[in-house]
Amino acid sequence: MMQELLKIDWLVFLRQTLPLLLPLGGGGFLLLVGPFFKRSHRFNFIFSIAIALLALFFAWQEWLGATNQTVNLLLFDRFTYLFAILFLIALILTLLLSYSYLESFGLVRPEYYALLLFAVFGMMCMVAGHDLMVVFLGLEVMSVSVYVLAGFQRSNVLSVEAALKYFLVGAFASSFLLMGIAFIYGATGTTDLIVLHQKGLGMLAGETRVYALVGLSLLAVGLGFKIALVPFHFWAADVYHGAPVIVTTFMATAVKAAGFGAILRVVWALFQWEPLLFANMIWVASVLTMTIGNIAALTQKNLKRMLAYSSIAHAGYAILPLVAFSKQGASVTSSISFYMLAYILMTVGAFAVLIALSEKEEKCTIQDLSGLGTRKPFLAFSMTLFLLSLTGIPPTLGFFGKYYLFLQAVQAGYIWLAVIGVINSVISVYYYLGPVVAMYFSKETADQKVGPTYWSPQAVLVVIWFTFLGVSLFGLFPSNLLDLIQTSVSSWLVAGK
Amino acid sequence: MMEPIFFYGFGGLAVVTALLMVTRVNPIASAVWLVVCFFAFAALFITLEAHFIGVIQVLLYAGAIMVLFIFVIMLLNIGAEELKARTMQFSGLLGGLVTIYLIVLITLGLLKNPVRFFEPLTEGYGYVAPVGRLLFTKYLVPFELTSVLLLVAIVGSVVMGKRKL
Question: CB distance from B165 to chain A under 8 Å?
């Protein structure tokens, strides 16, 4: 045992984990030093941004030189670093959105930044872990941070309610997940995802089969809760609505991407034991999630709530290609990863426009947007682009994301499933275009004419520009991005065999 | 052989104290019986050569978690009238029935399918030293992750709970 420890090259290990350790260390540093800089919001902000950028740089470096090594239950392949980069992009965008928001809502505290950094650390562990224990602990680190962030605006009843609801439901879901892991350990004697992948089929035969199946279903329930699949979606609308909009942005993007990263790992290791059963489970969940998410979004007047339901619907689209996982694992994984990137960019963009409009109080209803087209042409135009991208209208990034998702289902012979997906996208046109109609065609109300003092801080505008360019440029030239993602994914799927 | 005597002795103690815990009217008395039950559990673990789990059982359950229980009970400050109702509730009846059902189920299950014995573990597998060695070598990352999780939880509870930040 001691020899094993000595065999690890700790310097290399340090370099490989640097993208993970930087947010962790940065969060700890902020907690230690933050109280002395309580007045200096700027210090905390710049420090977190610097940490995130540094981690992004090292993640990119490690992506270039990834070796598929497994050290200390962590798997350092390109897939890990790809998702690390996704989380860090979402983190940087959220941080940029946060600065002015925290100031104007009186929430300036170093803990906010520390918790965001810790959450990102947890997400990276979820994707990097090749042992179910590490995945679970990473998920818990992430969830606990996000529970608190959801209730960060303690003076607001809705925010506290969101935190409590999210905490209770999330803790319940975690217990399902843990129970599932315990059952799988009982049935197979290991929690190592690579070992499970290698001898998965043999384990499902024999008398432990029923325990393995129970474990798999509990695991599916636990993970389904985290990414808000129907019928485990009830928390999402209230939590997304109640939380401060910056936290909602983070939850809808980074947390969801982390859930999908973990799901892809788990599916790769476990769910090919029973491809047919798994495919049935996936298509039922996918159709239900898409349909219920879209139909519930139709009646929403509040954009935060609408985007919450739309994020449920998008989770439905994103799990759709998993039906084909056993046939074409690599392309399914890359299509989902691509979609996650697209979804992060367009959702952050849409929320950023809402944040740009919110001073002192959140302005998230459709009426608040009326007449925006004449008052703030750029904001209105970019909001329109993000909503079109969420709908999946070409030539936006969202279109290509959806196209690759549906393509996987079609290639595997699930044409009807892709058709249901397209029908759902058509339904979603109605509610995505509602705000667009309000922005360009409805008259301003009286009080908006009196004082249309939108303050749109610089950092928020930077985020809007960044996501705007991302959604439109990658929408026109998606192939480079897709190549990059396919390279990262293929190295992982080959490595396990 | 002393081992079976200890095993059945502490096993019986665990069952008796668990029953006492459920039947006491005073919640504090229940909690104290639960502490005794946890101690019996710890002794059971030690007879099964799982020393580490035995020690943790005493430290965590009998120590930390029970103190928390008693704090909560004292903070809730349940009066005598509320305690009376507790003996004749529908939920109690239901709980009793479920318990009996589970006991019957387990006994029948054991009678029908004889327990398949697992391979015995190596000597000293559950002692403190081997467990510690595993924790700090093979499972180093999960172990450290747990400490991060605790840190996050502490920070979170301060952020949510402190009156003035």
Answer: yes
Residue B11: which of B52, B44, B36, B39 has the closest Cα?
B44
Q: Please state the ipTM of this predicted complex.
A: 0.89
Chain B: closest CA distance from residue A185 (Å): 14
Asked whether A439 and A370 are in contact (CB, 8 A), the reply is: yes
Q: Is A396 left (phi over 0), alpha (psi -120 to 50) or beta?
A: beta
Q: What are the pLDDT digits (tens) for A244-302? A: 999 999 999 999 999 999 999 988 888 777 788 888 889 999 999 999 999 999 988 88
Quick one: DSSP state of residue B126? T
Pick the CATH number of B3-82 from 3.40.980.10, 3.30.1360.70, 3.40.50.880, 1.20.120.1200: 1.20.120.1200
Record: contact A73-B165, CB cut-off 8 A: no
φ and ψ at residue A192, rounded to 5 degrees: -80, 120
Contact between B148 and A141 using a beta-carbon 8 Å cutoff:
yes
A350 close to A447: Cβ distance less than 8 angstroms: no
- The rounded Cα B79 to chain-centroid distance in angstroms is 27
Count up the domains in chain A and report the number: 1
Closest CA to A399 of A435, A431, A425: A425
Which residues neighbour B8 within 8 Å (Cβ) at sequence distance 6 or greater? Answer: none
